[in-house]
Amino acid sequence: MAEKPTLYSVTRRGFIGGAVAAGVALTTRAQGAAEAPGAAVAPAIALPALPYDENALAPTISAETLSLHYGKHHKAYLDNTNKLIAGTDLAGTSIEEIVRASAGKPEKKALFNNAAQVWNHTFYWQSLSPKGGGTPTGALLDRIKADFGDFAAFKDALAKAAVTQFGSGWAWLVLANGKLAVEQTPNAETPLTTPGKKPLLTIDVWEHAYYVDYRNRRPDYVNAVLDRLVNWEFAAKNLG
Ligand code: MN3
Fold it and tell me: Rounded to whole angstroms, how far apart are CA atoms 52 and 126?
């Protein structure tokens, strides 16, 4: 007897085409939810497709981790965001607009937490690559040397930010008022909402990002990502 498709697999097939076409813009809308003339319901925000197969980052990050992290965690944040904006003035806006509109507002805390996690995760998937790791080149490397001394010092600073973030959160490379900086944020907080700051790269250090593969050894996960997966080309593109 044929296996019954899961709701998740059906959903993924539905949005994958449109999400791929949107690339790094992170502003995709649900495939097949185009507004008909006079339609009253704004389209839901779609889960952007992973930029690689779920087994493409193994063994550094296993397919099991990616399946859960993307298919369950990221999708849940997305589903919650869509529920919370339905029927509000934020329905039909982009994920960036929703994150910015809800940041710092206690009455919109649940929306911010979910929407920022949607944005952060989409940014994280792009911050990794099966062909990542190594050393950046060109303008990004020049800027790293100017702002951190050398690449080793910069890599240590980014690893330290990722390892020492207390509890759940994120480590970031940002451009802050024209200078490269390393930061850590708790929970769903994101540099996206700070004027003058531009996120260039992130590492997820929530336990769900590494516990299946590394158990409690967050430093091993961080170092493996930095050595083998971190997508310097994405950071360079964001630097502009
Ligand atoms: Mn995560």
Answer: 9
Express as a percent the part of the chain with pLDDT over 70: 83
Distance 86 CA to ligand 1 centre (A): 24
Cα dihedral angle (144, 147, 150, 156), rounded to 10 degrees? -90
Scanning the structure block, which residue is given the tokens 């990502």? 225
Positive or negative, the Cα torsion across 115, 240, 24, 152? negative
Task: Give 119: exposed, middle or buried? Use CB within 10 Å, 0-12, 13-18, 19+.
Answer: buried
How far apart are the CA of 1 and the centre of ligand 1, in A?
A: 36
For residue 196, how far is its CA from the centre of ligand 1 (angstroms)? 25
CB 121 within 8 A of CB 204: yes
In 10 A of CB 33, how many CB atoms?
A: 17
Task: Convert the pLDDT of each residue in 6-61 to its tens digit.
Answer: 333 333 333 333 333 333 444 444 444 444 555 567 889 999 999 999 999 999 99
Output the pTM of the full model. 0.84
Cα of 223 vs centre of ligand 1, distance in Å, is 17
Q: 115 C-alpha vs ligand 1 centroid, how far in Å? A: 13
